[in-house]
Design brief:
Blueprint lengths: L2 H10 L2 H14 L3 H10 L8 E5 L5 H8 L4 E6 L2 H14 L5 E5 L2 H4 L6 E7 L8 H9 L2 E10 L3 H16 L11 H10 L2 E8 L3 E8 L1
């Protein structure tokens, strides 16, 4: 992700939006696709495991993992606003001492971030132009499980995203949303040494979970 793309992403995912989404999360819990990812990832083995959540929004996966007994949680996000929301919510829920937070482009920070048993990218791949690099770099950090959610390549979804990108262009931002090919995403994860163990879909989103082979 270029510096300009990353900076414009932070403008889009701003403090006002982060606080609004946190209020919604507190009322209703995770969105359906996020809930499907959480259900596929969390189990008895979660206790004592570590999590690296990339672009985690208001921290739904982080909060669920902490509840399930994760020993260490690392959040990496391009948006300072979302990181602050995650940090404050972790403190409110009593697991702030188990969590670490990093702001910036994940690709640029990757070497300085700890490896984790579980790595997640919930609706993050669609925000990166260089999918192979993002997937390859993030999968290399995962010791056991790798989970991601990304847009399905069906025409209504692609049409809506095209309109969104037109509006971003009219606003003269560099941020764009991408609908990468699922087969190419799958190939990139498998190339990092993983096998797909779970798949689920909503109308808009595709949920994939992989285990290290």
């Amino acid at each position: 992700m270029t510096c300009a793309h990353c900076c414009d992403a932070e403008k889009l995912f701003n403090d006002r939006r982060a606080k609004r989404e946190l209020r919604k999360y507190r009322r209703k819990g995770p969105d359906k696709s996020t809930r499907l990812l959480i259900d596929a990832l969390l189990g008895p083995e979660t206790a004592g495991s570590s999590l690296l959540d990339i672009g985690g929004g208001v921290g739904a996966i982080q909060h669920a993992s902490a509840r399930a007994g994760a020993s260490a949680i690392t959040a990496a996000d391009a948006s300072q606003a979302y990181v602050e929301v995650c940090r404050s919510e972790a403190e409110r829920r009593g697991y702030g001492d188990r969590a670490g937070y990093h702001v910036g482009d994940f690709i640029e920070m990757a070497e300085d971030l700890p490896d984790a048993d579980v790595v997640t990218l919930d609706r993050v791949v669609c925000c990166y132009p260089d999918m192979p690099r993002l997937v390859g770099t993030s999968a290399a950090k995962a010791g056991r499980l790798y989970g991601l959610v990304f847009p399905r390549r069906r025409w209504p979804v692609r049409a809506v995203i095209a309109v969104m990108n037109v509006f971003e262009a009219l606003k003269r931002t560099t941020f764009r949303v991408f609908v990468h090919h699922p087969e190419e995403i799958d190939a990139a994860v498998r190339a990092a040494g993983f096998e797909r163990t779970h798949e689920a879909k909503t109308f808009v989103w595709q949920v994939m979970v992989y285990s290290r082979a």
